[in-house]
Design goal:
single chain, alpha+beta, three-stranded antiparallel β-sheet, elongated
Length: 196
């Protein structure tokens, strides 16, 4: 196995790329690279990859699909179309377009999104005028997307664990009818029946 960390000079500053070439247990050659802003992160990642190769696990290439692309891909599967009623299917699509599609999170590579990124997204969402119920529905969009991504091997770990959702509470107190209100309703119903 050949491993090295290359320094890449950019206008915005240096970045560090972990480069790995190795043969798997079948003798097939593979190459892998990943870029980091900090050298210590590149070195840490290199050690992790070294351990994976030593345990004869194949290194998965980072998925270059965004959260948006994976959600749309999932919603176009036969399984999703069978699973949801038309109204639920359309509600998912509408909420996705309105609250996720044009965000930084939606445009990020799905493999790059971590638990703290998702929590930050929902913390920001909690500061809007959205109700908590709406934000919980948006969370469902994230849950089904990451579950699908995990099955497709786009990600190694589902980042949705323990994500908290906040928002405006919309619970309204139930109005209990008084006896006089109930009598009025009965009178109106009787009059309607007589009118027929």
């Amino acid at each position: 196995k050949i491993m090295c960390i290359k320094v890449i000079h950019n206008k915005c500053g240096d970045s560090y790329r972990t480069c790995i070439k190795y043969k798997d247990s079948k003798g097939i050659e593979h190459s892998y690279s990943k870029t980091f802003k900090k050298r210590k992160d590149a070195e840490k990642h290199e050690k992790l990859m070294k351990a994976k190769i030593a345990s004869e696990k194949e290194i998965k290439k980072e998925c270059k699909k965004t959260f948006n692309q994976v959600f749309v891909e999932y919603m176009n599967t036969t399984r999703a179309k069978r699973k949801y009623a038309i109204s639920t299917y359309n509600t998912y699509l509408n909420k996705f377009k309105k609250h996720v599609e044009n965000t930084k999170t939606g445009k990020s590579y799905i493999s790059a999104l971590k638990n703290n990124d998702i929590q930050a997204y929902f913390d920001d969402l909690g500061q809007t005028n959205n109700s908590k119920a709406l934000n919980k529905d948006i969370k469902k969009i994230f849950q089904v997307t990451f579950k699908y991504a995990l099955k497709q091997d786009y990600i190694e770990k589902n980042p949705m664990f323990d994500i908290e959702v906040t928002g405006k509470e919309t619970n309204k107190e139930n109005h209990i009818l008084s006896l006089s209100e109930l009598e009025k309703i009965c009178e109106l119903l009787c009059e309607k029946r007589k009118g027929k």
